[in-house]
């Protein structure tokens, strides 16, 4: 059965509360059915909509203005007021072009405003869903002194310290521990990668989350040594992998090396305490088979993340102080670093860093919110301008009403109503635009943060925005009535424009141009940042390489089994057609780097900057060729550099220069870990690589051959070089891996380029939004210049006619009009650029290797604005040139 | 006196109800008015007019039989009261009286 559009029916239900609603609905349904058979679905739907909208409009506008006064009696609202509402609608209806342009202009501004707000809201305001009293819940991190004298924030805590802390702080806060890992669900070709959180029994009670089906796990499920293998699925994972079937409770799911029984489904939208998506939860002890045996006794192995819920009445600052005191009592006398450790309580909001500061993304989002407000102001200025160019009729009407002694309050109400209708129209359309805008934006820029629509807050924001816009529009309209003076308006009749009024309008144009210039400079700076970022040289062929990571340990592989697998996988991968090289490494190139103490004969202290300690990277011999890292001097590793052979090392150029400027490092040696280790001979110098987008930190790197590695862990990543586009090789690479071993967990295979993406996101966010907003502001300002000039030319038709009659050439007339607009633009431009220069130093930290004083950006902004001004002025100017003197002089 | 004069749409609505007896309900009234006057009338206006007439005692309504179409919902059927019939007749008489005194030359639409 084809039903009428649901949305329309809902709208109808919202509007009509009267007892006859059902009959009216049935009438509409009957009409719909009739049209369905005679005109087809599309017409029937369209007409249904039309009927509903017509009905609603009638109810809203006319039915309430009952002539018999029943409405007035019932509500106490005077019919005069409703009469004014009707008048306001009618006067706007008479000028549909004005209404459309004004509403569209405001819509652009509001859309920018709302869109920016959804991002700010997600990053800073909205807590994770379903968490009870989320403002009392924090992530707990330990800020500890570092061996080099700096401080370092540890996100994770050793399980033993967590237990101590939990016992010692229970009087003022409750704690829960969890660790989130990526694991493979299923095996072989059906395997897929999920994020699983292993949490202790306090996790769900602390967050205040209960299951929507089945149950969550409790203390009985999390007993040492290995808990019970039970699983709670996230709603999203349940729907995508199990089709939302409630019978999945009780079913078995294999995760890594262990089989789990599903016991419950989490409520829809709950994705853990942090905004990053989690697919499933299991008891903490059920996941410890993946960890070293000492996981719960070692004070070095930081195995868990800690959540804290503060007791009522405890401030975060005092909680963190008391927690630190408890921590110091337990660690007293062990080491200096722990004695000065601080406890950080970081809010759960996504846009906060571990130390509770606002993250780079969130800072950019806040900037954008500010920028969006500028766009809104530009839009309002433009609507004010349009208001002034509206048909003289309405102004005359106002003047007449004032002259006849109309009540000022009533007049103000009329102006306010018109303004409110325009603002509400703009807001409605803007909300519609921003709905699509923010969805796209979210997918593009915050893909791993779960999205929510903050309906209440958006509604509040919209209401506030409409109110402010209405007040501003009303104030300007009132000022206009006052400014021109009643008698003047009555005397001048049609056509003329008072001096003060045109001054005000020119001022508005200048303001618009100023703001557009400001936004364009911002857009330009971010664009340049983006270009720099896209062209960033990593010193590796990021475009050609696929990185493969497989959670072997989680799937129960011993180190020996992993090692054996990698040895078999490398030749299998090299044999795949289209693959030009393969290597194994300790991690993917963009993973956090690792360091050990190093010493170099001849140096008491290494001549290195603080915070730039050299890091190691363990690779198989094929690495340099596969990654396109050049060996500048000496040689690369070979199969001969294995355990037992003389120990060797390759340093990056930057490290070589730092240690031995101007000298040949080949043949020198570096000692790793401690004095008992042999000094490793430097056999080669490799070209520099860049592994962090934002900073060059950690740039000093040396390579260790896999056969002579420092740590015992087997490789964690495979790298393959494609002859062409790496992405197309993913299926054949997966097949090759399964040939090496068919019971493999899910292998994550990604183009290396994509792995640099998360770090690039803040700049992408900034440049995309700044450009869109800048374009919107430019468009609105152009519209303003065009509209103002059009009106001026029309109003000056007589004057221009006189000039032409006195012998001025059309060309001269055109130049006169254009140069007038260029004058305003230059004024606005100068002001805008000056403001931009003043604000420049504040945006510096948001830019990537781009000066906030970039001359090309400022020059480009000036050129674009001038060009646009001339373009906008051209059509009215040409019209001025075509004025027929005889017609112009006869008029009026 | 208020409530004793008929608006144009109200007059048309009462006439349509009379014309459609015994099956006069919301959309039928709207259609007949649109067809006979060649003007678009919004459903909302028709409903409002019908309701107002009812309150003034010129029309009365009752729910009809359930029909298989329109989701099995019953129609609200309108009929004119004696006062309603009297009212439209009065209007008509007044109009005809006026027409009778309009000069012949002015009767043809230009």
**Mean pLDDT across residues of chain A:** 80
Largest interface: A-B, 24 and 21 residues
Helix share bin of chain A: 40-55%
Kindly estimate the percentage of residues of chain B that lie in beta strands according to DSSP. Answer: 5-15%
Structure description:
The complex is a heterodimer of chains A (892) and B (110). Chain A contains 27 helices and 22 strands. Chain A is of the alpha+beta class and 892 residues long. In chain A, strands 1, 2, 3, 4, 5, 6, 7, 8, 9, 10 and 11 form an eleven-stranded mixed sheet that branches. In chain A, strands 14, 15, 16, 17, 18, 19 and 20 form a seven-stranded mixed sheet that branches. Chain A has a four-stranded antiparallel sheet with strand order 13-21-12-22. In chain A, β1 and β2 form a beta hairpin. In chain A, α1 packs parallel to α3, α6 runs antiparallel to α12 and α12 runs parallel beside α15. Chain A starts with 5 loop residues before the first helix and ends with a helix. The relative contact order of chain A is 0.10. With 110 residues, chain B is α+β, with helices and mostly antiparallel strands. The radius of gyration of chain B is 16 Å and the shape is elongated. Chain B is 53% helix and 14% strand. Chain B contains four helices and two strands, in the order αααββα. Chain B has a two-stranded antiparallel ribbon. The relative contact order of chain B is 0.15. The chains are: A alpha+beta (892), B alpha+beta (110). At the A-B interface, α2 and α3 of A face α3 and β2 of B.
């Amino acid at each position: 059965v084809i039903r009428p559009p649901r949305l329309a029916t809902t709208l109808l239900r919202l509007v009509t509360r009267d007892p006859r609603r059902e009959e009216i609905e049935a009438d509409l349904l009957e009409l719909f059915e009739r049209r369905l058979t005679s005109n087809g679905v599309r017409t029937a739907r369209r007409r249904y909509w039309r009927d509903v909208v017509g009905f609603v409009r009638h109810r809203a506008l006319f039915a309430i203005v009952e002539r018999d006064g029943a409405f007035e009696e019932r509500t106490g609202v005077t019919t005069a007021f409703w009469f004014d509402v009707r008048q306001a609608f009618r006067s706007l209806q008479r000028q549909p072009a004005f209404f459309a342009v004004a509403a569209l202009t405001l819509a652009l501004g509001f859309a920018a405003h709302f869109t920016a707000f959804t991002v700010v809201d997600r990053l800073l305001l909205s807590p994770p869903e379903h968490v009870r009293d989320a403002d009392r819940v924090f992530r707990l991190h330990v800020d500890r002194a570092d061996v080099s004298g700096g401080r370092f924030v540890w996100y994770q805590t050793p399980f033993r310290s967590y237990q101590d802390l939990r016992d010692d702080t229970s009087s003022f806060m409750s704690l829960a521990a969890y660790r989130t890992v990526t694991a493979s669900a299923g095996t072989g070709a059906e395997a897929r990668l999920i994020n699983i959180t292993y949490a202790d029994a306090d996790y769900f009670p602390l967050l205040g989350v209960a299951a929507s089906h089945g149950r969550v796990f409790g203390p009985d499920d999390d007993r040492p040594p290995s808990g019970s293998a039970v699983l709670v699925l996230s709603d999203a994972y349940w729907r995508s992998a199990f089709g939302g079937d409630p019978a999945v409770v009780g079913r078995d799911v294999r995760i890594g090396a262990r089989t789990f029984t599903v016991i419950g489904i989490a409520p829809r939208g709950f994705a853990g305490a942090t905004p990053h998506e989690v697919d499933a939860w299991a008891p903490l002890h059920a996941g410890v088979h993946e960890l070293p045996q000492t996981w719960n006794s070692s004070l070095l192995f930081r195995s868990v993340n800690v959540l804290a819920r503060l007791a009522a009445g405890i401030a975060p600052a005092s909680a963190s102080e008391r927690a630190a005191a408890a921590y110091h009592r337990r660690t007293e006398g062990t080491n200096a670093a722990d004695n000065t450790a601080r406890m950080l309580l970081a809010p759960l909001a996504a846009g906060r860093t571990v130390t509770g500061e606002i993250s780079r993304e969130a800072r950019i989002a806040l900037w954008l919110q500010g920028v969006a407000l500028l766009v809104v102001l530009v839009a309002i200025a433009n609507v004010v301008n349009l208001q002034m160019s509206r048909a003289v009729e309405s102004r005359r009407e106002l003047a007449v009403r004032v002259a006849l002694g109309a009540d000022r309050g009533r007049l103000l109400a009329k102006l306010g109503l018109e303004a409110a209708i325009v603002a509400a129209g703009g807001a409605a359309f803007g909300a519609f635009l921003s709905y699509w805008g923010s969805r796209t934006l979210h997918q593009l820029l915050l893909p791993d943060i779960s999205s929510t629509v903050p309906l209440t807050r958006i509604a509040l924001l919209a209401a506030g925005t409409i109110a402010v816009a209405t007040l501003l529009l009303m104030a300007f309209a009132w000022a206009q009535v006052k400014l021109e003076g009643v008698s003047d308006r009555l005397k001048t009749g049609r056509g003329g424009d008072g001096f003060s009024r045109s001054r005000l309008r020119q001022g508005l144009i200048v303001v618009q141009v100023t703001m557009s210039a400001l936004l364009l400079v911002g857009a330009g700076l971010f664009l340049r940042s983006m270009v720099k970022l896209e062209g960033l040289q990593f010193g590796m062929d990021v475009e050609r390489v696929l990185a493969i990571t497989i959670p072997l340990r989680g799937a129960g592989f011993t180190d020996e089994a992993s090692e054996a697998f990698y040895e078999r996988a490398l030749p299998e991968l090299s044999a795949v057609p289209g693959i030009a090289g393969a290597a194994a490494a300790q991690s993917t190139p963009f993973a956090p780097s690792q360091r050990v103490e190093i010493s170099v004969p001849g140096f008491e202290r290494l001549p290195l900057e603080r915070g730039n300690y050299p890091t190691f990277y363990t690779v198989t011999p094929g690495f340099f060729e596969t990654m396109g890292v050049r060996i500048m001097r000496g040689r690369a590793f070979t199969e001969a550099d294995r355990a037992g052979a003389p120990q060797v090392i390759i340093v990056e150029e930057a490290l070589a220069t730092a240690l031995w400027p101007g000298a040949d490092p080949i043949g020198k040696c570096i000692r790793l870990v401690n004095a008992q280790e042999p000094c490793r001979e430097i056999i080669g110098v490799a070209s520099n690589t860049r592994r962090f987008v934002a900073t060059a930190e950690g740039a000093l790197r040396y390579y260790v051959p896999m056969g002579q590695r420092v740590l015992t862990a087997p490789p964690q990543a495979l790298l393959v070089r494609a002859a062409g586009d790496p992405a197309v090789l993913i299926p054949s690479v997966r097949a090759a891996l399964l040939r090496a071993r068919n019971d493999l967990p899910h292998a994550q295979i990604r183009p290396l380029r994509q792995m640099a993406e998360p770090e690039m996101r803040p700049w992408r966010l900034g440049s995309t939004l700044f450009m869109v907003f800048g374009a919107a502001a430019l468009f609105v300002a152009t519209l303003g210049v065009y509209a103002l000039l059009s009106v001026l030319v029309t109003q000056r038709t007589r004057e221009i006619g006189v000039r032409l009659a006195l012998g001025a050439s059309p060309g001269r007339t055109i130049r006169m009009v254009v140069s007038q607009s260029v004058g305003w633009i230059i004024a606005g431009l100068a002001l805008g650029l000056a403001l931009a220069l003043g604000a420049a130093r504040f945006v510096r930290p948001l830019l990537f290797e781009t000066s906030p004083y970039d001359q090309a950006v400022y020059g480009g902004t000036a050129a674009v604005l001038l060009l646009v001004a001339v373009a906008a002025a051209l059509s009215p100017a040409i019209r001025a040139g075509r004025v027929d003197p005889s017609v112009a002089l006869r008029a009026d | 006196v208020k409530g004793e004069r008929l608006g144009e749409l109200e007059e048309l609505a009462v006439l349509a109800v009379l014309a459609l007896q015994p099956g006069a309900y919301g959309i039928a009234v709207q259609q007949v008015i649109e067809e006979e006057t060649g003007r678009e009338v919004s459903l909302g206006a028709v409903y409002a007019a019908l309701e107002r007439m009812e309150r003034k005692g010129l029309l009365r309504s009752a729910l009809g039989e359930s029909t298989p179409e329109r989701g099995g919902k019953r129609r609200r059927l309108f009929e004119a009261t004696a006062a309603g019939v009297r009212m439209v007749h009065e209007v008509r008489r007044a109009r005809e009286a006026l027409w009778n005194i309009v000069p012949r030359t002015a009767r043809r639409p230009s």
